Amino acid sequence: MPFSGLKLREVREGAGVEREQLANDVGTSKQYISHLENGIKKNPAFDLVEKLAAVLGVDCREFVGIEPDAGADASAATDPPAVDPPKKRGRPKKPV
């Protein structure tokens, strides 16, 4: 899903954070934040999205249009899905 610069702007303004302050907090330039918000830059690195979310106090999924589950465990978003162990191959053992 594409990154939403409009959502970034909405969250940033709602938090009362200036572009320059946000840029300093996440280690980028004010111009880059502006480019993200205006759709000039569309695919920021995931680690930057995580930093933006942390500084603004939101879940990073909000920036890609996925609303976090209200009651979901926060680790559920980062834990890999459970996978059944691979089945053994070969001949079955003969009963004794």
Automatic annotation (TrEMBL):
<dbReference type="InterPro" id="IPR010982">
    <property type="entry name" value="Lambda_DNA-bd_dom_sf"/>
</dbReference>
<feature type="domain" description="HTH cro/C1-type">
    <location>
        <begin position="8"/>
        <end position="63"/>
    </location>
</feature>
<dbReference type="InterPro" id="IPR001387">
    <property type="entry name" value="Cro/C1-type_HTH"/>
</dbReference>
<feature type="region of interest" description="Disordered">
    <location>
        <begin position="69"/>
        <end position="96"/>
    </location>
</feature>
<dbReference type="GO" id="GO:0003677">
    <property type="term" value="F:DNA binding"/>
</dbReference>
<dbReference type="Pfam" id="PF01381">
    <property type="entry name" value="HTH_3"/>
</dbReference>
<protein>
    <submittedName>
        <fullName>XRE family transcriptional regulator</fullName>
    </submittedName>
</protein>
